[in-house]
Protein: biotin--[biotin carboxyl-carrier protein] ligase
Amino acid sequence: MTRLSPWRIEHVETIASTSDACTTRARHGEPDRLLIVAAEQTAGRGRAGRVWSSPPGNFYASALLRPNVPASQGSMFALLSGLAIIDALDPVLPAPSPLTLKWPNDVMAHNAKLAGILIDATIEHAILTTLVIGIGINLAFAPDIPGRITTSLAALGGHITPAGLVPKLCARLDHWQCSLIADRGETLRAVWQTRAHPPGTALAVDAGRIAGIFAGIDADGSLLLRQGETITTIRSGDIALS
Structure:
């Protein structure tokens, strides 16, 4: 059985970006399994350089990992992070949980975005040496994002503080990282798909640049998109459910 070293958890009041802080620490030799949690970010960021609004009340954290696994496994860490978020939040929500996953990095509720994941990776000689997983969760309120519907845990009837969420989230990150190590992601992929858009869902990639039907997740966590008789592998992009 895999034994992971304990998390080193640092809480700060205000920081520019927890992910930028972890990246800087990694550059200076910080070991595996640092989690920085901030009450507020002044320069929080999401995918593709988007701004992640980060006033006090919601959850902002980044985890520094040194996986030393083949670079092809990088996408699996977005999937395991999404599952860890759902596992940590499900118990504080009225049943049945409305939380679902949208590839590659969104946690949704009733088609509204509740949480996002930002992956920053360093690859050396085809090995994923450093990984910073940024996690933002709307616990108390839903920020306005142009063109996106957002929601919050509070609006869904759930309540947990950022400090209360930290140990639950760390425990579930540990669980899914051990699962990934144990069977190379087979269980992770199977469980992820039970909480995601079902096969056959119509998807549009990058504002319609590519459109097709969801056909599953491949062995390295990439999206499989069916277009007629052709299956296209999508390794990155913004997905919209049609």
Observations:
- The two ends are 42 Å apart (CA to CA).
- The CA atoms of residues 39 and 151 lie 19 Å apart.
- The first helix runs from residue 18 to 27.
